[in-house]
Amino acid sequence: MTTLSYKNQTVHIDAGELVSYQVAGQEYIHQKGSPGWRNADTEMFPIIGPTADANFRVDTPKGPAVQDQHGLLREMKYQEVSRTITDATFEKKYKAGTLIQNSKYPEKSTEEFLQWPYDFTFKKIITLSEEGLEVRFVISGVSGMPYMLGYHPAFNLVTDNPTIHVGTKEISLEDVLVVGSRALQVAQCKEITLKDKNTIHIKTEGFGNFMFWTEVKNMVCIEPITFYPYAVKQEHLAEGFSILGSEDAIYKMTISVSN
Asked: Which cofactors are reported in the record for this sequence (predicted)?
């Protein structure tokens, strides 16, 4: 377990997974074992969304890639690269064509192994500062590699009527529950506010969109994404790819709390 601290903020990270963010002793991250989801956070890469209706294949310029829901990155293990009292860096490296065991097989998938036809390095940097908690992602690889990226953190809820605010628009938890597994889309958005017992301010760079998901009332996933996967049929997921350039691609999510 990796622990970071800054003033009244504390973060706990378990093998790269953000399992706790406390401010003045209050927990803001959904806890494993509580109803709703078995994780606290994860990353969706190099695709977002389901692929079963496309026979678990996603088209790329180098041919079809075998991908299950939300991609293969979450099946890989992070290595801790560096750590100080206020920040930690974790990394996953992938060699093109390497077979990755699919944890959904055989109960929920026909594919025992997943693969991607490009090398990549994926870094996750978690930092505490005066501005709050920052989670930064750095994607390195071959220029021209297609990809999608989504960050999937789950937030702990403690009141009966939390609300999500996008500009002047208010979204209730019931609005998110009604949409179900598809997740509620908020397009062209970089900043949202979650009002619960306290107010959580979330700002992003690079993603450009959000989707919200939950099936219970004690947590909600607020997910910045590069592409909303249900905008197209699964066999056309490639339409949502971003393309890696000659430089690293950098994405950020900053979380701060106010009373």
From this structure: Ca(2+)
